[in-house]
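Archive entry. Fields below.
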Amino acid sequence: MLSHLHITARQWRTALKWTLYAASLLLTMILQTVILAKHPPLGLKLNPVPLLLVCVCVREGPEGGGLFALLSALFWCLSGADYGNLSVAILPVGAILSAVLCRSVLTTRFFPTFLCCLVVSAIHDSVIFCLKLLLAAGSPAYYTAVVLPGILLSMVLMPLIYLLVKAVHKTGGSYDL
Amino acid sequence: MKKHFSARAKWLIVIAILLAMGITVFHAVSTRRPGQTVVQTILAPFRSAGSTLVRQVERYYDYVFQYESLQAENKALREQIMAMEEDVRSADSLQRENERLHQLLGLVEEHKDYKRKAAYIISWNGSNWKSAFTIDKGTGSGIEEGMVAITEYGQVVGLVTESGPNWSTVTTVLDSALGISASVASSGYTGKVEGALATGSEGLLRMNYLPTDSVLRNNDQVLTTGSTVYPRGLIIGYITNAGFDETGVAKYALLRPAADLDNLEQVFIITDYEN
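PREDICTED_STRUCTURE:
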């Protein structure tokens, strides 16, 4: 059947994999804005999108994963995310550097990916907080009371996202026609 | 390291930075958001479906796990109704007297001129930087930027700050970006109410520029004074604390929002009113 569509099995597998990644992003965004933002655990709003982008980038490499991170960050920015313009720069750059670091110095297993996610999330939220502070629209106490605990609590979702990305990677790779 | 840090990866980094700069410049020079309108319009049905699903799950959860507490609440409410019926009987005569006095003073019924549009909340802003939510109605239903969102009790929820064909973003009163001219109902002192998000008084509002000699009492009601955006007489909140601002010249008051923003499901947008 695929021969009628003029695509090879390998191309089909790749397309399926990236479609599933895109669906994961959509699901994560809905989870964040519809469920977690309405019922914030411990009163803190969690931010799982950076975790997903870093996980995908580490798993797929700095080129494919980096492009996905860039497009996803752009989509996230256009969906009305606050300071989305900063996210467009910080998230892809953070994800690409994480992928390079994991693949060359560390490994792509859970713990190094977890560390990279934590660092990228912390940098992302801290840069936005600093900007808010510069614009005199925030207080330092807010960082320790809300922002930092929010980053740490978001990491609770990391194993789930890691397993999801691993499963998508595996499904895409092991698809047999 | 060099093997993995290819030229393509470097190019992606450069593109990301340029794109971020481009978006920042575009947002600074233009108020139009064509990309955002398209993406939000695409996302609206997904958010709407997700929100409906969550509401159904919440209802099922409430039914299963809160049956006993609802039964107890029902009993307490029945007792309360009995007591209130007694009060109503005596209030009826007072009500008739009140109506007569109103007519005598030539007062008109408040908020009769409002044209409202009901809308459901489909998603909340997911960040800690902003207090806003998205509703399932937009320009297609006559909702535009600058319209006020209220509860069914006339409590101010926020302002429509963005609008698309089937969605609108409402920035709540808790957000520090909003400023509302307001007055204390009991004393008439006027000031400006702003959200206190990210300033260390989360969940509260701050009424600034109150006179130095103003006397404020806890639970005093704060209402909108009326402007081109906010109709007059909407309830913003209740005073919980007061003090002098950083300059030591003007007073400020902290308010508890009148609307229960944590448990909102539906809001009403005032699409038109007699100014």
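CURATOR_NOTE: The first helix of chain A runs from residue 9 to 36.
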